[in-house]
Write a structure and sequence with these properties.
Elements (H helix, E strand, L loop, with lengths): L4 H4 L11 H8 L14 E7 L5 H17 L3 E7 L2 H13 L6 E5 L3 H6 L3 E2 L18 E4 L2 E5 L2 E2 L2 E6 H6 L13 H13 L7 E2 L8 H13 L19 H15 L11 H6 L5 E5 L3 H8 L3 E4 L10 E3 L2 E6 L5 H10 L3 H11 L2 E2 L2 H5 L11 H10 E3 L6 H16 L4 H18 L6
Parallel strand pairs: 1-2, 1-3, 9-10, 12-15
Antiparallel strand pairs: 3-13, 4-13, 5-6, 6-13, 7-14, 8-10, 8-11
Length: about 425
């Protein structure tokens, strides 16, 4: 599925097998060297996944240019990869101890890369923007240490037309008063009965990769289930196959059997919504500005329903980190702290149509101030964001959940499918020694 650049950020590329060509390219691409040697200055290599995203890459390059102009000891050099080859390149370079000094990482992968020895913890004290002055979902932590930080976040939302809801006699929910499960299901029934929409709901089920755990595990969590038990991260039993998880799975499949949504959505759900094909779209802040401009005062950004355990949305997007093998850690850390200026949080968020991670940057942006046309997304991120499981086992959990959810949507027995997923996840955890350090 082709996502807009800002939405593609959420599509994690699994650390799967890669070809010898990728390995050679990764190991030869301007590496930082090993951790041996003294930090006497010189070139610092930075890797990013943004080769196919010109807008965000330009914002990254502006930070690099400003840093290089601000001092003479270090020179940061950018190497941009297409997103599809980025994670395999990082894994290959880590195996060869040839990681660059600075690299970006999709937030749910931070624990895995930290546990695997790819990343070094960061001391960000003295930065213009303090760690506790930005959205918690934009700080990558593992074992109570900071390993990464992001300049922005995104937020999921239901998007609708106020006129469509009111004409169907449906209450427009708010952050403080979201729909209950019964209200949401009743709204779908009314919209279906109205006859205007073949499928009144679009959950974006044509999406791939990280979209599935990012988009649908918050709905599971709102039911009271989860991808894994978060107390010790040593088992998914009960969390992913208990009564509440099964209730979510039956509801999820029921959206198809009731005719509320297609089993697989179109290739551009937002365009379909704007063209009147759906009444309720599960989308995100990356499309917020466009939809607000198109629909004006008729646009309605809606919080997720409360299915019993509170409304939930996914939290965390791409973040910056420093490699453990970096031989210029002082310079890399100096660069990372340099980018933690409020103006760069503002610039990145403005360029990419995302939520500024720093509170000061959000306050300085009229769109995100109280009453601003995008302030809803910041409120959501503050109130409802749930980071994906903070465990090195997350990549395996994510791919397992994706396949399981797709099977359930296609008609697999919910209990059986979830039981099988739990067995696979628990076997993976056990085979990796519970991901102990």
């Amino acid at each position: 599925m082709a996502f807009p650049p800002t939405r593609r950020r959420l599509i994690a590329v699994g650390v799967a097998a890669f070809t010898s060509t990728v390995v050679l390219a990764a190991c030869g691409g301007g590496s930082s060297g090993s951790s041996k040697g003294s930090d006497t200055g010189g070139e610092i290599t930075l890797w990013t996944h943004n080769a196919g995203n010109a807008v965000e890459l330009a914002a990254d390059q502006k930070m690099v240019a400003d840093f290089n102009a601000s001092q003479t000891k270090y020179k940061v050099k950018v190497q941009a990869f297409p997103q599809v080859s980025y994670n395999p390149a990082v894994v290959a370079a880590a195996s060869a101890k040839k990681l660059p000094c600075v690299l970006d990482v999709d937030s749910p992968n931070v624990p895995s890369w930290a546990w695997g020895g790819y990343l070094a913890p960061l001391d960000l004290s003295g930065s213009e923007v303090a760690v506790d002055a930005q959205l918690p979902s934009t700080v990558g932590k593992y074992n109570d240490q900071v390993y990464a930080f992001g300049h922005y976040d995104v937020a999921l939302t239901f998007i609708a037309r106020k006129s469509v809801l009111t004409s169907a006699g449906i209450r427009v929910p708010t952050i403080d008063s979201p729909w209950t499960a019964d209200e949401f299901n009743a709204a779908l029934a009314k919209l279906k009965a109205g006859g205007k929409f073949k499928y009144p709901l679009d959950l974006g089920t044509g999406g791939t990769g990280e979209w599935w755990p990012y988009a649908y595990s918050p709905l599971l969590q709102s039911f009271g289930g989860d991808l894994v038990n978060r107390d010790k991260y040593d088992s998914a039993k009960g969390a992913l196959n208990g009564d509440k998880a099964v209730a979510w799975a039956k509801w999820f499949r029921g959206l198809v059997t009731s005719g509320y949504m297609a089993q697989k959505s179109g290739t551009s759900p937002n365009d379909d919504f704007l063209n009147g094909k759906s009444a309720l779209l599960w989308d995100g802040s990356w499309d917020g500005a466009k939809d607000a401009a198109k629909l004006g005062s008729d646009v309605a950004f809606l919080p997720p329903p409360d299915f019993g355990n509170g409304p939930k949305i996914g939290g965390g997007s791409w973040q910056w980190a420093m490699s453990k093998t970096c031989d210029k850690k002082n310079g890399a850390l100096e660069y990372l702290k340099f980018t933690r200026q409020a103006k760069y949080y503002t610039a990145l968020a403005t360029a990419t149509g995302t939520i500024p991670a720093a509170y000061a940057a959000a306050d300085a942006n009229p769109a995100y101030k109280p009453g601003g046309n995008l302030s809803f997304f910041l409120q959501e991120a503050k109130k409802f964001a749930e980071v994906r499981p903070v465990t090195p086992g997350y990549p395996f959990i994510a791919t397992t959940f994706t396949k399981t959810a797709q099977d359930i949507l296609a008609g697999a027995d919910p209990q059986g499918a979830l039981d099988q997923a739990v067995t696979q996840i628990n076997n993976n955890i056990k085979s990796n020694g519970n991901y102990a350090n």
